[in-house]
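[Help] Beginner question about ligand-bound structures

Sorry if this is basic. My supervisor gave me a protein sequence and a SMILES string for magnesium ion and asked me to "get the holo structure". I don't really know what that means in practice or what format the answer should be in. Inputs are pasted below exactly as I got them.
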Amino acid sequence: MWKLARVAASSFRRSRWFSTAIPGPCIVHKRGADILHDPWFNKDTGFPLTERDRLGLRGLLPPRVISFEQQYARFMESYGSLEKNTQGQPDGVVSLAKWRILNRLHDRNETLYYRVLIDNIEDFAPIIYTPTVGLVCQNYSGLFRRPRGMYFSAKDKGEMMSMIYNWPAQQVDMIVLTDGSRILGLGDLGVQGIGIPIGKLDMYVAAAGFNPQRVLPVMLDVGTNNQKLLEDRLYLGLRQPRLEGEEYLSIVDEFMEAVFSRWPKAVVQFEDFQMKWAFETLQRYRKRFCMFNDDIQGTAGVALAGLLGTVRAQGRPLSDFVNQKIVVVGAGSAGLGVLNMAIQAVSRMSGDNEGTVKNQFFLLDKDGLITKERRNIDPAAAPFAKDLKDVEGLREGASLVEVVKKLKPHVLLGLSGVGGIFNEEVLKAMRESDSTKPAIFAMSNPTMNAECTAADAFKHAGENIVFASGSPFKNVDLGNGKVGHVNQANNMYLFPGIGLGTLLSGARFITDEMLQAAAECLASYITDEEIQKGKLYPSVSSIRCITAEVGAAVLRAAVAEGLAEGHGDVGPRELNNMSKEETVEYVSRSMWFPVYSPLVHEK
Ligand SMILES: NC(=O)C1=CN([C@@H]2O[C@H](COP(=O)(O)OP(=O)(O)OC[C@H]3O[C@@H](n4cnc5c(N)ncnc54)[C@H](O)[C@@H]3O)[C@@H](O)[C@H]2O)C=CC1
Ligand SMILES: CC(=O)C(=O)O
Ligand SMILES: [Mg+2]
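Answer (accepted):
No worries, everyone starts somewhere. Holo just means with the ligand present. The predicted complex, written as structure tokens, is below.
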């Protein structure tokens, strides 16, 4: 407990780098107890006496004023005690207990909540984001205490244009939307998937400095095909099968029209939609609204940055990327998104057309290697299907182990959602890889759905590998003082910067060039020295700095394309005149940082 409090105090000081010296006032339209019950404004015992007088709070709180620093230390002490008291209990029980204590703070005092989150992001991201958020979604109906975000259901058809005005904030900058149909690797969780937009937006606030008063998590409840949930008496969503076809699309259309009619400058992130709707909605909206699909586009950029890192880890120039044999396991929204972006990168590097560069990529789904012989092939996967003559010795539907043994790939990348499919035999086969430093990316979430554990990867594939996983694993002790470094290949390195850069640019659409700029920025963030230590991504603890760089790269790409219309007082001309460094500085300065602002009441 003592140790945690010490760490907390020092990180508290470190984080002040971001704070403004004198926080500006904040206008509040309520008084008295209503303020104490509003987590956006509540300071708990931290209200100074003068403010208590001004806002009608005198007598509603114990008399002593506790400083922000003291409140912070007190929370961290409680958290430390909880860690101590739950030692030895099952992981799931401990994680949910940690989530509960953080969630209670979130519900009560957002300023303090986001401050502890920012300062301790490496420790808390696994609780508010993957993997614990998966467990929270699975148990959401039982855990539910207070609503957060908005719920639009199939029963709200025709009402959304007015419903959107029920949201209390005047301005919304960032929306994360899900229909709950593919939550991490856990499948259809219906309305319970709301935990994902909430967790993603927590990362937006912590990593990109979005003002929490201007973010909105949204659940589009069109039913669920999860029989267990339909039969669960506590289930909080619509008890009906999912809408399909035009009926489904008309609900999403109505929601998008409603959002952009109230907040024309908002950015919308689509998250955890099942594959058919992920691609369809991206195509349908990306030229009409300012939106992107994180699973397809954010993941692709993070994976590409990691793949370029593996080329550097082999001591080869980036141009050697075109010679890497890459096996992608999982032909869903994430796997296909990665392939599309990687192929664009190779064709840019080689100046070759995309038809020939596809040769180095191999794609498997639940039925094995995808070749042109595949019956009823999904149209989105068809461009990556192999000609049998190009995979001599392999057959349509060849198993993963057959493919790895035959091809000796440089990279094995899993986005299948299936825990443990990189089994001992597959990992041992990677020892014969043609690479001097084979790479294993077990990117599926949450932890139990990872294609392999970090320990198994180093044990079976050898100590010489580079390893990355979607959810965090601890570094692996290889003995003799050696450490197998674990990277977290998760789209959280990019989506906050994509959202922030887009917002500040004022662009009406998110283009491939903006996304590519984000990926290239992340790829170049890591130094050669770090790469030599097996690091492909920077530490999560520096996520605000990374996001500032990524956001600036996205913003500059929008400016270069002539799409930037500016944001607030900063117009297109000012953006155009900013140097690269000035853009990073501008993005950093635009980040909200949690401090108690003086509250001023206005009727
Ligand atoms: N690390 C990260 O940043 C991200 C990770 N993900 C993870 O990727 C996973 C997949 O996501 P989506 O592509 O959206 O799902 P999806 O449902 O669209 O696709 C899953 C794919 O895996 C294939 N598959 C299933 N069983 C298989 C098996 N035994 N062998 C080979 N392939 C198999 C399916 O045929 C399908 O093509 C999820 O677990 C998700 O959490 C997704 C986005 C980002
Ligand atoms: C990280 C993420 O977006 C996913 O697993 O779906
Ligand atoms: Mg996702």
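A couple of things worth pointing out: The first strand starts at residue 26 and ends at 28. The two ends are 45 Å apart (CA to CA). Feel free to follow up in the thread.
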